[in-house]
Amino acid sequence: MGLRFKFNLVLLVFFFVGLAVTAYVSRGLLQKNAREEVERNGGLMMEAALAIRGYTINQIRPQLELQLMRVFLPQSVPAYAATETLNELRKKHPDYFYKEATLNPTNPRNRAADWEADLVQEFRNRADLKELIGERDTPTGRALYIARPIQISNPACLTCHSTPDAAPATMIKLYGPANGFGWKLNEVVGAQVVSVPMSLPLRSAQNAFYAFMGSLVAVFALLFVALNVMLNWLIVKPIARMSHVADQVSIGNFEIPEFPERGKDEIALLGRAFNRMRRSLQKAMQMIEG
Predict the structure, then answer these.
(1) Is 99 helix (H, G, I), strand (E, B) or coil?
(2) What does pTM read for this prediction?
(3) For residue range 218-231, what is the model confidence (pLDDT) as tens digits?
């Protein structure tokens, strides 16, 4: 087993161990960063919905009070305004999703699906819970959801949702008396749910991982070649020449040129020591023969 083989074997072992550790750590970090990016996008979408709700309550609804006495306008309802606005976003980004999922909604489109109803029930069972974040499979791929409880904290909401008799006649005319009633103060009736696709950030993280690992392998390959060239030039060839000279001297051939003594490194020092030993041996042989 030659020196070069041993050197390359040790180098490859360390490389593959280092590559495995680097792959494990970098993949975890990239996946974590991708998930954090998705969470930021979901949080931004949730805050946008809350901003739309606040704008509707504070600036739109007061301007429509007289008109609301004659006809019920869904556009004046904060949940409707937020849903409609974010549905416009979905026309260009259909994988993004926002819904004010309610167990007993006035508007049928807000009725909670089974998985959304589970979220609402979780909020109802845990009064201290203010947000749920998780992942679920969708027809378009893996998605991250953020959910926050819809709690009746304003008594004014009960005007429309306590009993059909107390609700505005214009609202009853539009939606009917069957749904959206029986709500109570401080009761959790639903959940704001934002769903953000994870496929693109995860794909970007995967591509970044492959690019990073490919670059690492390419750098190692260049380093591997460079080290082998240096090893061959600085160590293997000088030692091979020294071995050849030693073989010739061992059989009494002192005509062969001495080993070059250029440089001040360890190989040069070894060459000088070898040449001194050769000259001493040659003199000793001459004295014996004389």
Answers:
(1) strand
(2) 0.70
(3) 999 999 888 888 87
